[in-house]
Write a structure and sequence with these properties.
CATH class: Mainly Alpha
Strand content: under 5%
Protein name: Rrf2 family protein
Structural class: mainly alpha
Shape: elongated
Distance between the termini: 37 Å
InterPro entries: TR_Rrf2-type_CS, Tscrpt_reg_Rrf2, WH-like_DNA-bd_sf, WH_DNA-bd_sf
Strand order of the largest sheet: 1-2
Largest sheet: 2 strands, antiparallel
Number of helices: 6
């Protein structure tokens, strides 16, 4: 699995938490702890998928454009990472006379395909909202945090128009 899935889920959960506010790629990157270029790449997938909207220019950024109660982690996995569970290389060689060497890749492909389907079925049971709920259960209430100060030394997040 690649990190784009985790970045996408983190970004959507953050935007769901901010609900009626935009966040720039720099603000999201600071929260995710990655470079803003990686955020822009992932947010491009999410925008094309209809999960976020963008506003360019001063006061611009990203805002959630979906219902976080209905967006499943499986949807986001399929958008960002489907097929990435299987390694790029597998041992063995179909041209070898050994039954193990000549069949290992086919068998392992089957295992990885089955595992990915099971993982997607598990992710189907979880939504962006359920991730946010789990996060809030782990720590203090979010109620005391002022949304316009959620990132230290970052400009206030402009309100949605």
């Amino acid at each position: 699995m690649n990190s784009e899935f985790t970045i996408a889920v983190h970004s959507l959960v953050l935007l769901a938490h901010l609900s009626d506010h935009m966040a720039t790629s720099e603000q999201i990157a600071c929260n995710v702890s990655t470079h803003s270029a990686r955020i822009r790449k992932v947010m491009g997938f999410l925008r094309k998928g209809g999960y976020v909207r963008t506003k360019e220019g001063i006061g611009g950024g990203f805002i959630l454009d979906c219902d976080p109660d209905k967006v499943t982690l499986a949807e986001i996995y399929r958008l960002t990472s489907q097929g990435s569970l299987k390694p790029n290389w597998c041992s063995g060689d179909i041209s070898k006379p050994c039954v193990v060497a000549s069949n290992m890749e086919k068998v392992m492909d089957s295992f990885f395909g089955d595992a990915e389907r099971q993982m997607e079925a598990y992710f189907e049971q979880h939504t962006i909202s359920s991730v946010l709920r789990r996060i809030s259960e782990l720590g203090e209430s979010f109620d005391h945090i002022r949304v316009d100060q959620w990132i230290m030394n970052t400009p206030a997040i402009p309100a949605k128009e």
